[in-house]
Amino acid sequence: MKSKPAATVDPAEIERFSALAAEWWDPDGKFHTLHKFNPVRLGYIRDTVVRHHSRDAKGLKTLRGLSVLDIGCGGGLLSEPLCRMGADVTAIDPSEKNIHTARAHAAQGGLKIDYRATTAEDLAQTGVIFDIVLNMEVVEHVADVTLFLQTAAAMTKPGGMMFVATLNRTLKAFALAIVGAEYVLGWLPRGTHTWDKFVTPEEIKTALKPAGLSVTDETGLVFNPLTDRWSLAADMDVNYMMVAKKVG
């Protein structure tokens, strides 16, 4: 009999996002910032994957035949477009309310996504593995970053890829992502983020290395107030994304 896996879920974080479940698909609601930079992170995932697998980025089903795990999927903002690209998507979130919202929205679009209200630890216990594992805007909300990333790594196929998007633990990130975004501009509900839980790129790399993953690319995301758009940039002081490949 398998022992119960150690938990990385932070109950306070789950309660906070569950209370906002109905807002996920409102582009003018509490998650409007996610809606704004979703096309940028989606494009980064697509372009990186097609390069890795030598596919046509302009193909309608360019991810056909690839299995994707979206951890901390929320309402499915990434899961749905990836499914439309042909990927076989499994999406998990510990919040039952988030999964209910995600399932209902996917059904409206006729999309087949395997949504599950579960944790990464419990899913990993089943032994399932994926070509692509996504940890997008989730590691800064877990209780144990190293354990969480190594659990996600265990579900990455040999030769597969893991994407991580999070916030850097810098004073600049505190000023912009918390003081600015939550208290001054009101882009996010107050209390969405805790600076102490932000994660540096080196901490991500250190956690992944023992699990057989090495970072192959990294990029920052910056907001231009003049164009009202997010874009990829060399500046990783606040928002950043990384992709790591598993040995295999």
Outline the secondary-structure elements.
Layout: H1 11-18, H2 32-52, E1 67-71, H3 79-84, E2 88-92, H4 96-108, E3 114-116, H5 120-124, E4 130-136, H6 145-154, E5 156-167, H7 171-184, H8 201-208, E6 213-224, E7 229-233, E8 239-246
Parallel strand pairs: 1-2, 1-4, 2-3, 4-5
Antiparallel strand pairs: 5-8, 6-7, 6-8
Principal-axes geometry comes out as: globular
Count of helical segments?
A: 8
Supply Rg. 17 Å
Per DSSP, what share of the residues sits in E-state strands of 2 or more residues? Answer: 15-25%
Low-confidence stretches: none
Mean pLDDT: 88
By secondary-structure content and strand pairing, the structural class works out as alpha/beta
Task: Profile the largest sheet.
Answer: 8 strands, mixed
- The separation of the N and C termini measures 29 Å
Q: What is the number of E strands? A: 8
List keywords for this structure.
alpha/beta; 8 helices; single chain; eight-stranded mixed sheet; 248 residues
Task: Provide structural commentary.
This protein is α/β, with parallel strands linked by helices and 248 residues long. Helices cover 34% and strands 23% of the residues. It is built from 8 helices and 8 strands. An 8-stranded mixed beta sheet has the order 3-2-1-4-5-8-6-7. α6 (145-154) crosses α8. The protein is globular. The model has no long low-confidence stretch (mean pLDDT 88).
